[in-house]
Design brief:
The protein is mainly alpha-helical and 94 residues long. 65% of the residues lie in helices and 0% in strands. It is flat, with a radius of gyration of 21 Å. The structure holds zinc ion (ZN). The site of zinc ion (ZN) has 7 residues, from helix 1 and helix 4.
């Protein structure tokens, strides 16, 4: 390895048109799926998500590490919030 040499290839950008249209569609669909998954994350945590939507949510989470990461963060926030609420009322159920 020659550390003194900077590789110029890192700056190489592939034009959008070069990708096959099918790849672009798959990417877009995934992006939409990610966005809608994250949009309902708090509803899911609050158990306000309809069962049909839950299944879709969970199956997306199954294959999307980025959404799992976001979910862990959201859950942490929700737990902190709920813990604060429980400290006031102590209403445990089940
Ligand atoms: Zn995702």
């Amino acid at each position: 390895m020659h550390r003194g040499q900077i590789r110029v290839t890192a700056g190489h950008t592939r034009p959008r048109e070069a990708r096959s249209s099918r790849d672009a569609v798959v990417h877009d669909l995934r992006d939409v799926e990610c966005r809608s998954t994250r949009a309902v994350m708090h509803d899911y945590l609050d158990r306000r998500l309809p069962a049909r939507r839950v299944r879709r949510f969970e199956s997306h989470m199954d294959g999307c590490p980025r959404c799992i990461r976001a979910f862990i963060d959201a859950r942490q926030t929700a737990w902190t919030r709920k813990a604060a609420a429980r400290n006031r009322s102590w209403s445990w159920s089940g």
